[in-house]
Specification:
single chain, about 290 residues, alpha/beta, eight-stranded parallel beta barrel, TIM Barrel
Length: about 290
């Protein structure tokens, strides 16, 4: 049986410091959280960065560079996955929906991949969703996705194709067919975002069966769905992800204090089901990373 790759998403974009005092904010806190997750069994760390003073999401290349430097100084094998998600959110004005309101991050797609071109991580995410996301809208047009995919490819980075709804998967297959993305692809199903994919087993089974032949895939659940999706994904042959980006609780009413605690819980679920986590080096071999 193939070993399971566990990714830890340590801070994210939407989790707010006021939700939990344990959220990593500064580059050092984020790097330390990544290293702790690796010690607990994560083979991959998925990284967003934040303004160290305000805790708000950031796209500063220097913050990404510092996090990567701090990680590699202690763990050169850990697979680094940088986000390209920030920059896609649009909040329409109440008076004129064509005009953006505060909270909008929508920017040129090439701005969203500047850090990928410069820092060349192992993996970068590539969101394919255009959808309602809570009260806002996330916009990733096919043409903008093509532009970002080209930068990722030219940097020699593996794209992790993030799927938020069934139409995203159809778009991914079209992009592979036309050559904008290399197939069969590395996919991640994002389950439990409001107005996106449901978290039931039937939905995950459908998604898995729609993948290109030979594609590698993982799934993760938002909030209370985090640990059930760990089990569901493993049972259907997928890899898994946990982390404070997706969920801040160990159990109802109990905040996790570290990302490592979430990794430990997921590790136990995989082990109890009869699986085994892949090391970072084993995950590199499974994914075809150099």
């Amino acid at each position: 049986m193939t070993k399971t790759i566990l990714t830890c998403a340590v801070t994210g974009n939407l989790t707010k410091p006021e939700m939990t005092p344990y959220l990593p904010i500064t580059p050092k806190q984020i790097a330390d959280s990544c290293l702790g997750a690796a010690d607990a069994g994560a083979a991959v760390v998925h990284i967003h960065v934040r303004d160290p003073l305000t805790g708000k999401p950031s796209m500063e290349i220097d913050h990404y560079a510092e996090v990567m430097h701090l990680i590699k100084a202690q763990n050169k094998e850990l697979i680094i996955n940088l986000t390209t998600g920030p920059g896609g959110r649009f909040v329409p004005s109440e008076d004129d929906p064509k005009v953006f309101a505060p909270g909008t991050t929508l920017c040129h797609p090439l701005k969203r991949v500047e850090h990928i071109a410069k820092l060349r991580p192992d993996i970068s995410t590539l969101d394919l969703n255009t959808m309602n996301s809570g009260p806002d809208v996330v916009i990733n047009t096919p043409n903008n996705v093509r532009k970002m995919a080209k930068v990722i490819r030219d940097a020699g980075v593996m794209p992790e194709i993030e799927i938020f709804d069934t139409g995203d998967l159809n778009l991914a297959k079209d992009l592979i067919k036309e050559g904008a993305l290399d197939g069969p692809g590395l996919f991640t199903f994002v389950m439990g975002v409001k107005y996106g994919l449901n978290t039931d087993p039937a939905t995950l089974l459908y998604l898995r069966d729609q993948l290109p032949l030979g594609a590698k895939w993982a799934a993760f659940g938002i909030g209370r769905a985090e640990f059930p999706i760990v089990a569901q994904s493993w049972l259907l042959g997928g890899h898994v992800r946990v982390g404070m980006e997706d969920n801040i609780f160990l159990e109802k009413g109990v905040l996790c204090q570290t990302n490592a605690q979430l990794v430990e819980r997921a590790h136990r679920i995989v082990k109890d089901l009869g699986g085994e986590l892949a090391s970072s080096n084993e995950a590199r071999n499974l994914l075809g990373l150099s």
